[in-house]
Amino acid sequence: MVTAALTPQMQTCVDRFARALFTPSKLMALHPRKQGHPGNAAALAPAITLGVISAFEGFVEDFLATVFYLQGQSFGQIAKKLSINNPDVGVVDELVRREFPELRGKIGVDFSVDVWSPPGVGKSFWLPRSLNWEATKAEAAGWMQVRHCLTHGLASGWGPEVWPGPTKNKTPPASSVLRRNSDGKHSLGLHGAITCARVYVAGARHVATVLALEFEQKLFWKTVPDFPLKAAPVP
Fold it and tell me: What's this model's pTM, rounded to 2 decimal places?
């Protein structure tokens, strides 16, 4: 009885993920959703972005540590394999494929997530689009660069800015997921923050569900915010 009570549960990781996403999801409700610059509410987009990616990182560490433990790996092995900095969806995909080669044919299958597509220069409206798994990994990598720029003070996320490029080759720049302005600067906006949230939440849910099925477990995601597209303001 004691052993069962102390065994880590995958569902507990999902529940913690939901709790970590609660504040970013509620920040969306504070946005005025009116045309034009939202004033001080512009600070909501970078706050949501940072909150979501932080929640994702915590979930990845929690969930994969639980999976590796249930697989029978030692604490030393688990600690070494999870000593990764700022994992995005692609990094998690690579790690799971390496540790569970039998799942390579299941990850990314029948996956799709709806997001906002930034308007072109001179256009106003963000348009919905669907991402497959490969596109989601690329998008997540771009949003991780947004996170780096925000965290290190290279950009504020407040309005149109210059977002420095990544330091690693073959890494999508932050500008690849942001709205481009006529002066070459890029802006984040609430549409962008919602896209980031949907990419990371959907990516986490997909990989976790595939892993849970491998252990014959079913996860419940009802309490995890999904950051609906309809919550975005008019441009």
Answer: 0.92
Q: Is 210 exposed, middle or buried (0-12, 13-18, 19+ CB in 10 A)?
A: middle
CA distance 193 to 79: 31
Two structure tokens written together for 97: 């494929």
Single-letter code of the amino acid located at 3: T
Q: In this predicted structure, what is the pLDDT of residue 28?
A: 86
Cα angle 193, 194, 200; round to 5: 90
Q: Please give the full DSSP string across 56-101, using - where no structure is assigned.
A: HHHHHHHHHHHHHHHHT--HHHHHHHT--SS--HHHHHHHHHHH-G
Using the CB atoms, write b or e for 81-119: b if 16+ within 10 Å: eeeeeebbbbbbbebbeeebeeeeebbbeebebebbbbe
Question: Which alpha helices (DSSP H) does the chain contain, by range?
Answer: 2-6, 10-27, 44-71, 75-81, 89-99, 133-151, 189-214
Predicted local confidence at residue 116, as pLDDT = 95
- Contact between 174 and 149 under an 8 Å Cβ cutoff? The reply is yes
Tokens of 23: 């504040």
Residues of the chain with pLDDT under 70: 1-7, 34-36, 231-235
Nearest to 56 by CA among 199, 221, 210, 212: 199
